[in-house]
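Hello,

I think I submitted the zinc ion job twice by accident. Can you confirm which output corresponds to this input? Input:
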Amino acid sequence: MTHRTGLNKSTVLSLVDELSELGLISESTAVSDGSRGRPSAIVQLNSENVVTVVSEIAVDFARIAVVGLGGIVMQSIDVDVNPRAVGPTATAQALGEAGVNLIVPGSAVVAAATAVHGVVSTEGHLTTAPNLDWRNLDLGQLARPFLPRDIPVFFGNDADLGALGEHRRGVARDVEGLLYLSAERGIGGGLIRGGELQQGIHGHATEVGHFVVRRAGSRCSCGSKGCLETEIGESALLRKAGRRSSAGRVVELAREGDSAAQRAVADVASWLGFAIGNLVNLLDPGMTVAGGFLSDIVELAGDTVRRESEAVALVTEAIDIRASALNRDAALVGAAELAFDHILQDPAAIALRSPIVRETA
Ligand SMILES: [Zn+2]
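Support: Only one job matched these inputs. Its output is below.
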């Protein structure tokens, strides 16, 4: 450890003591490997004690959760707020108030992270979020008053983080590359290649919801016409089913045998397959994971999705479509991974920053 960190032995020992006192690590004595000198201690992270507070800001809902190292969602709360209706400041406040009651006793919060349904930098500069109708915001600054002391906060696009979650802790754990497509109100896409998120030059690569599939199609939230979102987003599913409720309700009706809901699901499945086939031609992702209610579409009408994707794919063997394993938690788990990636690059900073450790009740 001294060799790799470049720190001298007494500094390392005092850091280890400090982390150990905080309950973040535990030490055990290693068996001597036969070389001269005292055997080094084996240091292990206590994953259940090292947690992040993560949140998700979608169009009409928000959630906050505590996620431990290793992707374990320890607690989560659906926050009573509609981000699009109340705007960014009130959303940050509602999340902050909900977060106060969340922290697991005895654990140390080392970072916070937020998944947002929009184009956002890691530092929290939001360029645009068409479905939320938010633009040019500094989310890092908005979040700061609601965060405990100086813990770092990170941001990411919800679909990018969904992709990261599925790649590290979900259905795509052992694949080198994956394309994640998710639908709630809008459509999001995230691409991972060689273990890394591919976000493009300006950070909005794979915004596949706004890929135009019908030039004379319906008006989209982004101002354009005939985007993929207008054929497979929540409003599209509702329009096709002749309903005004929610995607979840249409899925439920389809499962119960309602024929209008089943036709709507089949039509969305067909467009989803068409999109996946084209995206596989473009990106060759290895695996495509469907999240949000698209996961239900794949479960209900997977044959249609596969048939339509194979009809446009150049190499049909390249098509591997799966339903999300993490479901509603995908973006939250991905947000925690993003935060831990930053923290673990500099674990000593955890101790130096004196993380917030709640007394055990
Ligand atoms: Zn659009």
